[in-house]
Recover the amino acids of this structure.
C-alpha cells in the first residue's frame, strides 16, 4: 500500500505497470482501516482476522467489489 | 514483539531462542508456522530471519514511523499507520510519493488523522496479496 499525492500521480505510476485503480482509498479511510486492523496488535491475546472478518471490515469502510474479496 | 517495539529491531530465531531459553529448532518451527499463517514474513531463503514482524519491518523501507523519541520502519502505508495505532495513536509517518518522490508526512494525534493528504493505493487484488507479500 503506497501513498500518492493525488489520483493524477497514482495514475502516472500505475498505468505503465498495467495496474487498475480499484485499490484506491482516501487517506482518512486508510487510517480507519489501519486502526481497526492493528490497534490491538500488541495485546498478547491478538489474533489475525479471519477472511470473513476482514471482508466485513472492508465492506464497512466502503471497500467493495471483486478487488476486495479475499477468496 | 516487545523487543521490536522497544528497540526497533526484529530479532532472529537465535536471539529469541536465547531470550526465552527455548531450543533453537522450536523457534525456527514457530517462525515457519507464523509465516505460513500469514502472521509474520520470513526473509526469502531464510528460516532464521524475519522480513516482517507485521506491521513492523525488519529492513529499511520508504515508510518511517516516529512515535515519541522512537522510530521504526513500516512495510507500507497500511502497516505504518497501523503501527501508530498499535503504539497508542500518536505519531508521524514519513514517506514519499512513488510518482514524484515528494516527501509526505501523515500526523496522527489521539487516534485521529490530523495532517496528511493524498490517496492510498494498492495495485494487487486482495485475493493475491499473499502470493508475493513483499511486493504487495
Amino acid at each position: 500500500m503506497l501513498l500518492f499525492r493525488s489520483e493524477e500521480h497514482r495514475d502516472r505510476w500505475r498505468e505503465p505497470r498495467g495496474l487498475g485503480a480499484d485499490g484506491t482509498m482516501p487517506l482518512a479511510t486508510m487510517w480507519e482501516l489501519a486502526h481497526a486492523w492493528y490497534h490491538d496488535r500488541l495485546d498478547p491475546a491478538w489474533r489475525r482476522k479471519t477472511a470473513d472478518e476482514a471482508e466485513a471490515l472492508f465492506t464497512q469502510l466502503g471497500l467493495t467489489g471483486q478487488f476486495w474479496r479475499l477468496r | 514483539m516487545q523487543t521490536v517495539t522497544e528497540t526497533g529491531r526484529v530479532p532472529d530465531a537465535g536471539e529469541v531462542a536465547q531470550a526465552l531459553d527455548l531450543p533453537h529448532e522450536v523457534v525456527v518451527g514457530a517462525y515457519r508456522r507464523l509465516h505460513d499463517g500469514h502472521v509474520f514474513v520470513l526473509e526469502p531463503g531464510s528460516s532464521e530471519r524475519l522480513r516482517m514482524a507485521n506491521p513492523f519491518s525488519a529492513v529499511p523501507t520508504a515508510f518511517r514511523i516516529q512515535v515519541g523519541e522512537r522510530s521504526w520502519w513500516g512495510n507500507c502505508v497500511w502497516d505504518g499507520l497501523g503501527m501508530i495505532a498499535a503504539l497508542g495513536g500518536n505519531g508521524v509517518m514519513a514517506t514519499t510519493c512513488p510518482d514524484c518522490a515528494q516527501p509526505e508526512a501523515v500526523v496522527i494525534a489521539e487516534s485521529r488523522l490530523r495532517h496528511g493528504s493524498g490517496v492510498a493505493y494498492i495495485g494487487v487484488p486482495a485475493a493475491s496479496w499473499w502470493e508475493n507479500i513483499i511486493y504487495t
Q: What stands out?
A: The beta strands of chain B are 41-42, 50-53, 56-57, 64-67, 70-73, 91-96, 103-109, 112-115, 119-121. Residues 24-36 of chain B form the longest helix (13 residues).
